[in-house]
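Incident review: delayed structure delivery

Summary: a single-chain prediction request sat in the queue longer than the usual turnaround. Root cause was a stuck worker, restarted by the on-call engineer. No data loss occurred. The affected request and its eventual output are reproduced below so the record is complete for anyone auditing the incident later.

Affected input:
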Amino acid sequence: MKLIFVILPLISFVGASTALVGQSSSGAQAEVQQGSEAFQRGDFAAAATHFAAALKSDPNLPDAAQVEANLGVAYYADHQFPKAIDAFQEALKRDPSIETAKGFLPVTQAAAGDCANAAPGLDREFGSNPDLKLRRILGLSLERCAAEAGDERKADEVTQKLLAAYPDDPDVLYTAGQLYGRLSSEVNLKLMKVAPNSPRTYQLMASVAAADGNWQGAIDAYHKALHLAPGLQGAHLQIAILTLMHSPDPNAWHQAIDELNEELKVDPTSAEAEYEIGEAYRKHDQLEPAVAAFRKALALDPDEVPTRLGLAKALRQLGRKPDALAALEPALKSAPGDPDVHFLLAQLYRDLGRTAEAQKEMAAFEHLRAAAPPGESAKPQ
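Output delivered after worker restart:
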């Protein structure tokens, strides 16, 4: 598999030589300038032609090593990997310290499918290269080479570093998803092979069924898991959530609460189970039990914003507006971008006659709703 990471920021690696060619022939200087301009507009083949012509015209350019490196980057961007490798190697012969060539040589070797020779350089440069854009490409190439070689530990180590350094980068996120998705599939298949009738296998089958929309099949699989392991954490909780979400029986919420209470016997620290109990009671107008459950959930996890929203809603329905406000206001600090928090705060401030604050929170809600990505909307829940 060829590992190719060509991105527009490659432009930043080209052009550093043009300020240093004043002592060369005017023809060589013009070729370097035209090569840089061609790269700037994305014409990589023309850039390579001009850089090569400059070196042919004057092999002893004052900054010939950088021009060779620029030639290598142009070849790399044009997917001419053997030529790029030759150019980077020549640049390093001229100047072993040139960062562009040191970084791009192993990247290009990886792109050409030569991970065996690329890996040592990728590893070295990923840990030390000062350019963040080039380090990103080095890391992506190193991760793919490690995964291709079956070195899952190394691939995971590099991926974690990439995610820490580039948390919102699409290539990094995609590569991480591919790695962990494949590893997860392999582990799951092994689980089903070595322990086909184990509680964990049934738990896995339930997760798959739920993801496929087969909620009843998921519940049945969770029950099989619990039959084999009554103390299995999370199973009663998932049965309850699936029941609350999908059951057509209007009284099924009672059964869900029973499941949630069973979960709390298994795991008394489950804030999520307490929250789901609170929501089930609140949505069926059982407000005092709802408040009690939400308060237990907050005692277990004080930072959980949905729990604060649920508690504030229940208290407001009970007419305890100041208590509702006190319960919700901490959520404004932990989740300033949550539109539901601003909407409910606006309602509570209005209830309490605090008009200016109500208007401010409603304006914040409207702003978040307007800024929501296409297909999403900041609607109060």
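Verification: The mean pLDDT is 89.
Action items: add queue-age alerting; document worker restart procedure.
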